[in-house]
Design a protein that fits this description.
356 residues; 2 domains; 16% strand; seven-stranded parallel β-sheet; Rossmann fold; globular; alpha/beta
């Protein structure tokens, strides 16, 4: 029996079940270990997890992230990580400016690991460079990473604008388990539910949905997630990831009206993947990477255009046939473009291309 290549997946505080499911099918070919902080979002997968202390574990306090990022350049630091990486063949980190990406590159310099790659979601060129040290972090990562996975073509364009080598970039998006998230038969009922899933914050368009909901008093608007605006929405629920497929099965229409800010645009929106797999008709916006996510399987409106959001939702609310048409397109796109087996295969091929 031959030894499998050893792969380290570093995500710190952001270690989560949603992303780790992309890697779980790879355990037949690779010996995978995930690295998280002491308090990651999730910590139980089919491969082991090593937890290390991080500034991200500090309990919340006012202006926590601005303070920590200015003290640490970036708060995504894991104490003792370099030593723990000894003997790994490939390290898969995230973002060029995250501190643990720098730690992985230092481990490579010391000869502890052979190759280091990173998945980049950031899609705004030269973003996150206002904090002292971040620009140097990003430049070092672009130069020393063996490869960069760009979440979208928009991310790839941002990396190229910053000076990354095009030969080192591969676009691999996020994916969804189309067996867990799947459609159910919908009755042509007048009692419809419009679903929003995500952070309940202004940039996600939450207040736009609240404003639109007033126009449709006979339609149920369900908000699932957490955030500072949770007390402003009509019906709010927080559920575990295990419960999410059932949440989508409650819905008839999905809405994701994200809108850009100076330092943020929607990077992909994983809820849109789940909504597509669940066969829901979708109303969303052209913010960031969303058009690459949904293709022609959604009604896309300009960000912040409340009237356009309302008009698109009205078309779905009044037309069951149109809902079915878009639901079928959404499910077909999920199976053809976003299925988790497609993403896992791309990751496997990339890993093998980088390993000796």
């Amino acid at each position: 029996m031959t030894n499998k290549p050893k792969i380290a997946i570093i995500r710190g505080k952001f270690l989560n079940r949603y992303e780790m499911q992309f890697f779980e099918p790879l355990i037949e070919d690779f010996d995978i270990t995930a690295f998280g902080s002491l308090t990651p979002y999730h910590d139980r997968f089919v491969f082991p997890v090593v937890k290390l202390p991080s500034p991200m574990d500090i309990p919340d306090f006012p202006y926590k992230m601005p303070v920590l990022n200015r003290l640490c350049i970036d708060a995504h630091y894991l104490w003792g990580l370099e030593e723990k990486l000894k003997g790994f063949d490939l390290v898969h980190s995230a973002e060029t400016y995250f501190h643990y990406t720098q730690q992985a590159l230092t481990a490579k310099r010391k000869g502890y690991v052979k190759k280091v790659i990173a998945t980049v979601l950031e899609n705004i060129p030269f973003n996150n460079e206002g904090i002292w040290g971040r620009k140097a972090f990003k430049e070092r990562a672009r130069n020393e990473l063996d490869h960069i996975i760009a979440l979208t073509n928009k991310t790839k364009e941002a990396l190229l604008a910053e000076g990354a080598d095009v030969k080192k970039i591969t676009v691999i998006s996020h994916y969804v388990d189309t067996k867990r998230f799947h459609p159910v038969q919908k009755r042509d009922s007048k009692n419809l539910t419009v679903l929003f899933v995500g952070r309940l914050e202004e940039e996600k368009g939450v207040l736009d949905v609240v404003q639109v909901a007033r126009l449709f008093p006979d339609v149920r608007f369900l908000f699932v997630g957490d955030g500072s605006l949770k007390n402003r929405v009509l019906e709010h629920r927080m559920v575990s990831y295990d419960e999410m497929p059932a949440v989508y099965r409650e819905a008839d229409i999905f809405v994701a009206p994200s809108k850009p800010r100076v330092t943020w645009e929607e990077q992909y929106n994983t809820a849109l993947l789940e909504a597509q797999a669940s066969g829901l008709p979708i109303v969303t916006t052209s913010s960031g990477g969303i058009p690459e996510n949904v293709g022609d399987a959604a009604m896309i409106v300009p960000p912040g255009d409340v009237r356009a959001i309302a008009e698109s939702l009205k078309r779905f609310i009044l037309n069951a046939s149109l809902r079915r048409q878009y639901g079928i397109k959404a499910r077909a796109r999920a199976e053809r473009v976003h299925d988790i087996t497609i993403g896992s295969r791309k990751l496997k091929d990339l890993y093998l291309s980088l390993l000796p």
